[in-house]
Write a structure and sequence with these properties.
766 residues; alpha+beta; six-stranded mixed barrel
């Protein structure tokens, strides 16, 4: 049976701690509920219609023209009636310039054929279909092109060797939901103008894609499997709309994953606040509890009533937190302005409320167990003897704590959706608390030996280690929370310093790629001075010591990958910013003066593939195998803004391979627009990347990301503030008693204030 008057009286008398408890529960849920619903909305917006996102049933991707075998397979399947239609697309970057004036723009060109896209839509300002507006001699552009080139619909622009008319403006494109990872705005060109552009040369960086529309939905997987068997492994990729990856989705997965970590930090800190506030409530009631037990109340009676009280407060906090989370979910699109797909919508679901309530009650049960376990250790003798220690802990206490830890681990894994990272998170949190606990114990033991001369300071030091105090718990709690908040703050600072503030003044700010062999002398004459041109040969790493390099099924593309296409180069010497980490020289020279087929690798790629000197690497250069022994490992001494290559070969083995050249220039920002114009006029196929402008765009992106991180970190900061308030409430009665004792012994108010001020300063410093 529950005693209602007892519950109401306890709730009213402990209303301050109850309010803190409710705030902690609400705070622990707000960001978690908001991110859960927001993640669902993002998934629906980006991948809700995967066909519209990718434009076809089957997508063929390569950096080269499709192989004859794959083309023959497509023709055969079309004759069999399994393929309804196909469309080829060519994606690459190039400078475009207006026909009047000196304005140039680095743009993302998409050359498409009739029928593009099979699914989804490209909405135009004129409300025409793309195939109606995009005809030979005309282009369709993103709105930024008009603004930055200062042209209008009907004006003409130079793209490569062609002069094309702007026919329309794109207002929405389902296959390109977020303009986040492109150096320039989109420009659609008709495939009939591909030859006139004269931009695709040998070795040019082009994404060749063929979209396929299947005759029947139930044959898509079989169709993809048959095309995959005819493709060149490692060079051509065959995917369905269900399996094709999306850089946009990976970006949001990673960003929301990190924000989920921050929300879990907030949840843990708020949980500590719950524990502290309930501990404060029970400390205040210790004498009352002792009297109730002396009058015959059992421990079970107290457990039931205080558990009901905690659950009641937990329900109120869960409702408040879930409601706040849904309100925050509506606000998040404004926070993510410029990053979300156009037309993204937020849908509030009752499922969010139910999940929030369930999570809130689970968190309440976990974090209130330890304070409630104190009820069994309250004895009637506490009426006469205060501040009993908590050293007599039974086996049940530790078993229940272990069960609670398992529950917390399951909760974290479910929230992060990643078992390995969830285990690392829990293990790291426990390690942090353990280290802080050991350090706190050491400092407090050391403080026992201190005996400063001022009486107020000496009493403050003694108060830190008095029996039954909460100093160690407060120090551990605040230290852990401050460590987490500092880590978030440092991460935000490091993002900015790494990508923006550390840009060296003398670093290259103009990159020129796809320079052809016969253009080298002309390019040097145009840009002036002795410009170093780096040869680039594109290849894939196929085996390491005979072991095939393959993409794992569950490989998460959060970093670089050995399965991607690499840029090889050749030279005899180290660059000025390179030094040898392993090996006596870049290449080994035989006794007869010959240099064998060798390769020097960068330490970065050596770590990725666990490579070392003496390993044998096999590459495929457009289907031609090349096998070389690793003879040295290089490391770099400067920023990655300078040119670098993972793999370097002796010149005689790659000089005749299909290649282009790369140049890194440093020019005054005022000179760059004119130089870009001259380069693109003389060499239309050369792509010029203005890194100064790109860095400015990246800076804007980093500022937005930093703002998002800071916003979510503010919830952790608020949780830390609640912990501090809870800690003060937990020791309030003890301080009141001490103040009374000091006053009885003749101390003035200023002396009492000095003692407590010193004590809090010492706790803060610790």
């Amino acid at each position: 049976m529950l005693h209602r008057r007892f519950l109401l009286r306890e709730l009213w008398q402990g209303r301050r701690q109850a309010l803190i408890f409710i705030f902690c529960v609400a705070l622990s849920l707000a960001t978690t509920v908001a991110l859960g619903g927001f993640r669902r909305d993002i998934d629906r917006s980006i991948t809700g219609d995967a066909r519209a996102l990718h434009g076809g049933d089957v997508i063929l991707h390569s950096h080269y023209e499709l192989s004859p075998g794959l083309r023959q397979a497509i023709d055969r399947l079309r004759r069999q009636g399994k393929i309804t239609a196909t469309v080829d697309t060519y994606g690459f970057y190039s400078l475009i310039r207006s026909s009047r004036g000196e304005q140039t723009l680095f743009a993302n060109l998409e050359v498409v054929g009739d029928g593009y896209p099979f699914y989804g839509r490209v909405e135009l300002q004129s409300r025409r279909r793309l195939d109606q507006a995009l005809r030979a001699g005309e282009i369709v552009v993103a709105p930024e092109v008009l603004d930055r080139l200062q042209v209008q619909i009907g004006d003409r622009v130079h793209i490569g060797g062609a002069l094309l008319r702007v026919a329309d403006v794109v207002t929405y494109e389902s296959a390109r939901p977020v303009d986040l990872f492109s150096f320039g705005p989109r420009v659609f060109v008709a495939s009939a103008d591909l030859t006139a552009l004269d931009l695709i040369k040998k070795g040019s960086r082009v994404n060749y894609e063929t979209l396929i529309k299947a005759s029947r939905d139930n044959e898509i997987e079989a169709l993809a499997a048959e095309l995959r068997s005819a493709s060149l492994a490692g060079q051509e990729r065959v995917e369905t709309f269900r399996t094709a990856g999306s850089r946009i989705k990976r970006f949001f997965d990673n960003l929301l994953f990190f924000l989920s970590l921050i929300s879990l930090f907030t949840l843990l800190l708020a949980g500590i606040g719950m524990q502290s506030s309930l501990t404060a409530l029970l400390r205040e009631k210790e004498t009352t509890l002792a009297i109730v037990k002396a009058l015959g109340a059992t421990t079970g009676f107290l457990y039931r009533h205080y558990l009901v009280l905690a659950l009641f407060l937990g329900v109120l906090g869960s409702l408040a937190g879930s409601g706040a989370g849904m309100v925050l979910e509506v606000f998040l699109p404004r926070l993510f302005t410029g990053l979300l797909p156009p037309g993204s919508q937020v849908e509030i679901s009752m499922l969010d409320l139910l999940q929030g309530m369930g999570l809130g009650l689970a968190v309440v049960v976990f974090f209130t167990f330890l304070p409630l376990s104190r009820l069994s250790r309250v004895k009637p003798t506490a009426i006469f003897r205060r501040e009993e220690g908590d050293d007599n802990r039974r086996l049940v206490y530790y078993l229940t704590r272990a069960v609670g830890l398992v529950f917390l681990t399951i909760l974290v894994v479910l929230q992060l959706r990643d078992l390995e990272v969830g285990l690392w998170f829990v293990g790291g949190s426990l390690a942090l608390i353990l280290v802080v606990s050991v350090l706190a114990r050491f400092v407090l033991r050391l403080s026992r030996r201190l005996s400063p001369r001022p009486l107020a300071l000496r009493l403050a030091v003694r108060s830190l280690v008095r029996p039954g105090n909460a100093t160690r718990a407060i120090v551990v709690t605040l230290s852990a929370s401050l460590a987490i908040l500092l880590a978030i703050f440092l991460l935000e600072r490091n993002l900015r310093q790494t990508f923006i503030d550390s840009y060296p003044e003398a670093a290259p700010n103009l990159f020129c790629i796809d320079i052809q062999k016969d253009q080298r002398d002309g390019f040097r004459s145009l840009v002036g001075g002795e410009v170093e041109l780096f040869p680039v040969v594109r290849a894939r790493l196929t085996t390491i010591n005979g072991r095939a390099v393959v993409r794992e099924k569950d490989e998460t593309p959060r970093g670089d990958s050995l399965t991607r296409e690499f840029n090889l180069t050749y030279r005899d010497d180290l660059l000025p910013d390179e030094e040898l980490q392993s090996g006596r020289s870049l290449f080994r020279v035989d006794s007869d003066g010959r240099v064998g087929l060798q390769v020097s690798i960068l330490d970065t790629v050596a770590e990725m593939g666990d490579m070392k000197v003496g390993d044998v690497l096999r590459f495929s250069i457009q289907g031609v195998p090349l096998e070389a022994e690793v003879t040295s490992i290089r490391t770099r001494t400067r920023s990655k803004l300078y040119p670098f290559f993972y793999f370097v070969f002796p010149p005689q083995y790659l000089e005749k391979a299909p290649q282009t050249y790369f140049a890194a220039l440093h020019r005054d920002p005022a000179e760059i627009p004119g130089l870009e114009n001259r380069i693109v006029t003389a060499f239309p196929n050369v792509s010029v990347i203005n890194m100064a402008a790109s860095a400015a765009e990246l800076g804007g992106l980093m500022r937005r990301l930093a703002g998002i991180i800071t916003f979510f970190a503010a919830f952790s900061l608020l949780a830390g503030a609640l912990i501090l308030v809870s800690s003060i409430l937990a020791t309030r009665l003890a301080r009141v008693r001490e103040a009374v004792y000091y006053k009885i012994l003749g101390a003035r108010s200023s002396f009492v204030l000095a003692v407590f001020l010193y004590e809090n300063l010492l706790i803060g410093l610790t």
